Amino acid sequence: MISSPMITYIAFSRSARKFFRVLSRCALLALISSETAAQNSIMLVGTGSSVPAPLYNEWADQFNRQSYSVKVRYLTVGTDESIDRILNGSGDFGGGDTTISEAELKRSKTAMLELPMVVIGIVAVYNLPNLDAELNFTGPTLADIFLGKVQNWSDPRILKFNPGLRLPNLPISVIHRTPGKGSSLIFSDYLSKVSPEFQAKVGRSTSPKWPVGQAAARSEDLIELVKTVPGAIGYAELNWAEKSSLAMARIRNPGGEFVKATPQSIAAAAAASEGKLRADFRVSLTNGGGANSYPITSYTWLYVPMKAADAVRAQALVTFLKWALSTGQEIATARGYAPLPPEVLSRVQSKLASIK
């Protein structure tokens, strides 16, 4: 006869085996359910500028954590390349720091929405050893540097607006972006407004005809070049510049104030131009009004087809865009970006109903 302890042990063993079988089945079902959900989810792929990439990647990460049916991926290829892809029907959305030209829109396979997402600032960053001061620049002086007319940091045109500073007798090394970049469009748009000579010789473009300087393909490449070349100057989006620890110039606005780029001064420029915004959101914010406005400011846009080949994907895109224009704006603020002004935000949100 089996003793009572042995009976208890056998009973426990049987119960334990049954319990673990049930637990294993539950785990397997959960795995299958997870894999099925992943297979059934829609992956939205967008391409665009590297300027807002840190924010857009943060949006994708946070959105993907809370969304099981829709996932988002953003690839940096540059503004011009992104426009070309989305107009040819490649990808779910595009992104860039300029609106699409009327000529390009005419060749699009479908009507396109251009939606502002946040406000950005392009700053002049420089590398002057043993100088911690924030230099003041007027627009014309900055234009002359990128025209190759001001070639040394001790030039009187720089010293004039930086009294009391001893600037080194050091050649200026200009760093600019390779062709097709949205940050070049914003920067050259500003310089063209403040310098007729720059407008005539270089012009406003994603691919300006820079007469001097070395080219960098990505925002991070430009930052790295400026950091490694003493006397270098370049331009980058504010958040990229802040992460680099490079010095950033104060730029004189139309009100005569030398203004540092901050989320507040960038937002002030957008607010001052709210009344100029057209129904299609096409507006240049550079060199606008407002005593506290930073003058090299712009929206950054997403390019979205109004009619997708797949209605389910279109609805998935609307789901993400609604999130980006609500929770995403809060994340932008927390990450040091300037969110859309309230009136602009409301108008952009209402445009989402056009996506089918």
Provide a brief overview of the structure.
The chain is α/β, with parallel strands linked by helices and about 350 residues long. The protein has 14 helices and twelve strands. About 45% of the residues lie in helices and about 20% in strands.
Question: What does this entry look like structurally?
Answer:
It contains 14 helices and 12 strands. It folds into 2 domains: 42-120 and 297-354, 3-Layer(aba) Sandwich (D-Maltodextrin-Binding Protein, domain 2); 121-276, Periplasmic binding protein-like II (D-Maltodextrin-Binding Protein, domain 2). Strand 1 (42-48), helix 2 and strand 2 (70-76) form a beta-alpha-beta unit. With 356 residues, it is an alpha/beta fold. Strands 1, 2, 3, 4, 6, 7, 8, 9 and 12 form a 9-stranded mixed β-sheet that branches.
Which percent range describes the beta-strand content? 15-25%
Helix share, percent: 40-55%
CATH architecture of the largest domain: 3-Layer(aba) Sandwich
CATH class of the largest domain: Alpha Beta
| Number of structural domains | 2
Q: Quickly count the helices.
A: 14
Q: Runs with pLDDT <50, length 5+? A: 1-38
Structural class: alpha/beta
For the termini, the CA-CA separation is: 77 Å
The CATH superfamily of the largest domain turns out to be Periplasmic binding protein-like II
Look at the structure and give the mean pLDDT: 88
Number of strands: 12
- 3D shape: elongated
N-to-C series of helices and strands? HEHEHEHEEHHEHHEHEHEEEHEHHH
Biggest β-sheet: count, sense, barrel?
Answer: 9 strands, mixed
CATH topology of the largest domain: D-Maltodextrin-Binding Protein, domain 2
Radius of gyration: 26 Å
